[in-house]
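Researcher: For the annotation table, I need structure tokens for UDP-glucose 4-epimerase. Please keep the output clean. Sequence:
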Amino acid sequence: MSSKILVTGGLGFIGSHTVVALQEKGFEVVIIDNLSNSSLNVLEGIVSISQKKPAFEQIDLREKEAVKKFFEKYTDIDGVIHFAASKAVGESVGNPLLYYENNLSTLVYLLQELQEKPKANFIFSSSCTVYGQADELPINENAPVKKAESPYGNTKQIGEEIIADTCKVATGLKAISLRYFNPIGAHPSAAIGELPIGTPQNLVPFITQTAIGRRQELSVFGDDYPTRDGTCIRDYIHVMDLAQAHVVALERLIEGKEESNYEVFNLGTGKGNTVLEVINTFQESTGAKLPYKITERREGDVIAAFADTEKANNVLGWNASRSLSEALKSAWKWQKEVSKDEEN
């Protein structure tokens, strides 16, 4: 019998790709999503790729009773992958209480239910933002967690602490926090991808929306950083590689391969690219022209961040295999598909 996995925020960008990856490995999936930053159309995209329809529950995880009722209905959940959270750094600065409620109370309510089970496996969607501007590059899992630059970043730090503290006392609970670097791209079918509501907060959706003509030009925030071309460096990882890492991490817990009941892994490519390198690679890979201008630095941006992937490669047994060019081509294919749908 296949394991039944709950994916919260399963209609979001990374969540939807992970649902596909889970179904391809034979897992039975139940999605919880409140549709605050996603669409039911994504469910159709998942089905078109995998030919399987995951169970779907529209639930707001901030409602404690709704969470309790879910676990009363689905008593056979073998694992939880928790994506559901607000993630815009700027919005978190302007509305911190929304972020603390949405990102932390939901985590607490899930863990309260899981700690009642004799066995529970939990994967947490964390972020490299916990490191801030790291003292050394590449960044490994032993790098100090710096004071958060935003309420969003703080919720990831506190979230990890909540899970670690719970694992100390909940003997049946095993958990892994996955600290992502910069997820980009889309499924090669272009049936699902990144669909930001409003103005994109991330570089690649802004690139594709500018190239398609939805945005006038792309702003590059600063070209006077101490990097090879003056622009910030990030570790851009294909969302399909990221999705597959969640499956590997979950299998690690289900199969009992973990070294302790709480582990942390960085997920990245191990390679940093500057903003201008991403722009140039996009233009070379797609043939699309991209108008951009250099503007002032943006507050809160770290100079450089890229992963030391040794632990994920050797301990987790996972490698990022897709190139920056491949990721950007898939994001462009997805953008053209979205624009086609908008025109119809």
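Researcher: And a one-line annotation?
Model: The domain at 203-234+270-339 is CATH 3.90.25.10 (UDP-galactose 4-epimerase; domain 1).
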